[in-house]
What does this fold into?
Amino acid sequence: MGIERVTVSPTHLAVKAKAKMKANIVKSIDDGKWERGLLRVDVAEWKEKAINKGLPRISIGIDEAAGKVEAFASDFLPFLDKVATKVDAMPDVTLEDSIARMTTQIREVAKFKRS
It folds into this structure.
């Protein structure tokens, strides 16, 4: 089978070709190809494809992604607990306190990076 003959990770090859991808995306935006492609699909066709092609695949995708979601959660939730501890230690009396807590939460969560 064709898939079994693959010996180099396609994702690693894609990473090596990122400059080419970026150049091609920018070119397609600049020359109008990207826009023309998007405009070929009207809302009726989009709905039909989403309902008849996309929706039936959602449950399979969810099942297959469970391990990745669990792995992400095992990295993210401890990080989020540390953020919550920091936010919980902040004053919570006035509207300004609430705004400060909210922005701290957003800024701290934005620092999350997976390795």
